[in-house]
Please model this.
Amino acid sequence: MAENTVEAEELHANRSKMHISDTDVAIEITKMNKWYGDFHVLKDIDLRVMRGERIVICGPSGSGKSTMIRCINRLEEHQKGSIVVDGIELTNDLKKIDEIRREVGMVFQHFNLFPHLTILENCTLAPIWVRKMPKKEAEEIAMHYLSRVKIPEQAHKYPGQLSGGQQQRVAIARSLCMNPRIMLFDEPTSALDPEMIKEVLDVMVGLAEEGMTMLCVTHEMGFARQVANRVIFMDRGQIVEQNEPEEFFNNPKHERTQLFLSQILHH
Amino acid sequence: MTDLSYVRADESPNLPPPVNTTGVIGWMRANLFSSIGNTILTLIGVFLAYSIFEPLIEFSLINAVWEGENRQACVAPPDSGLHVGACWAYVKAYLPQFIYGRYPIDERWRVDIVYGLFALLLIPMAIPGVPFKRTNALLLLIAYPIVAYFLLTGGFGLQIVETNLWGGLLVTLVIAVTGITASLPLGILLALGRRSNLPIIKLVSVIFIEFWRGVPLITVLFMSSVMLPLFLPEGVNFDKLLRVLIGVTLFSAAYMAEVVRGGLQAIPKGQYEGAQALGLRYWQMMGLIILPQALKLVIPGIVNTFIGLFKDTTLVLIVGMFDLLGQIQSSFTDPTWSSPTQAHTGYLFAAMVFWSFCFGMSRYSLFMEKKLHTGHKR
Ligand SMILES: Nc1ncnc2c1ncn2[C@@H]1O[C@H](COP(=O)(O)OP(=O)(O)OP(=O)(O)O)[C@@H](O)[C@H]1O
Ligand SMILES: [Mg+2]
Model:
């Protein structure tokens, strides 16, 4: 086990090195537009995310935050403009989509764990089937990440037997097992009871400190202040304002940002 | 003044439940005699059960004839006033025919091997703890059908036995087992096809399903055995049993497809997204994530279709094939055993055999449902 931890850490070290040598842009979105039928959800989105950058996205309900980050791993298809992830442009080419999904982890509001598989099986499934990793190795890596999210003792339980906070931590570990270079979070704490939010945020802060490239849709402003390099405010399908956290919270420029912040901060 | 503030000082211990809610007496008191109305219902129920089962037990066990050479044993002497019950001696004498049909007597060992191998492979497959499931499944699904095919039909030095000599339980089981094992995968493919994003595949699946669901099985059987030869070129001739097998399989596959589709619809979108976000391909996502959950949800519906198919095998009589029921009915014409209770006994026997198979499937499915249940439902 100890040996394996070392291995996994080496893996991490290697990846950090790679970050420096690779191109520095992780995600490049240019003039991206999306429609649901006639409804224009995303309008001319331009966003460049650098490697190791932590971005928090906020905005009123229905503003298109989820849709935008779901376009990054092709859970939703965009109709105009371009998205380049890790140097690969997203097109209808299934191979490229697969390649991108292997490098981009995603954590959902409702965890989306597989209820018919144990926690360990949830974590080893993709490494075994997608990365073609031997089962034993996959299990060792899974146990490593489960320890990191502080629930190795739950490995043989089923998701339905865990609390919400524990399930979300498993979901994060499950993504990490694929060794992604970018992590997307779509309101990871908004389905959780207050006492469980902290345990999930702690894991995310840990990830950020290690230099993971992260895009988080969240309304946890404490988290945004603590880890974000940049906060993006979306409204009606557009990026209305972006800034570094201090400036964004203390001195919002756009009136809609001011209105939004006054609403969520006074609750 | 009442005190609003309260702080618990000590922990309450865990106590066993009160005695009168457990045990046989407790159960009877709670469930059968909890009130006057309930007591009356219980008594009526006991009375009804008695009036149904008493004659049945009398007919099938108490007054039954177990031994005998011919009809004489099962006919009461003219003015003795005796009631003769079930004539089991007749079933005993005919049992080989019920099991093998007109399969040549010297070759019946082949059928026995086929039955035996089936049990040998199916039982370890059905018990969860037994190891080597993968090998077992390969043997059962690939090796076994080939072996069984050659054993039953002949070839490789074995005497050829035409399928029109097959009959009884053999025909029932061949049709039912083939139909069941072929219709499930076909039904799954059709269900996936019907939910596919590719319009052609979707259209083909919908047309297939709606066509086969829209015609009665009897029509299918008639068409396959009477009409199909008209469309085939001269000299091309399928075996009749094969045609029936195909007809029954396609027919139940259409029902299966709708059952499976029901299960697929119950799987939340998040499961698909979770799988896709991890980079699983379509077939991996379906095979590892979606279908295991969807099929588990619709086990009752799947088994329902299996049971329906099993009982529908009796319809092949209409195209001149003798399944178990047909074989039993055809034995009624034999004067050696004609007695007032011959037909009753025959039908009772048929009912018992069919019921045991169907009840077995039903219990097994309940067992699997419990076994596959993981954690709390939310
Ligand atoms: N599949 C869909 N079909 C049609 N409209 C959709 C679909 N999904 C989302 N929408 C619409 O697109 C808009 C943006 O949705 P999105 O889920 O991206 O919002 P959001 O910013 O994530 O909101 P929330 O904070 O409530 O999660 C909403 O108005 C929503 O009604
Ligand atoms: Mg959302």
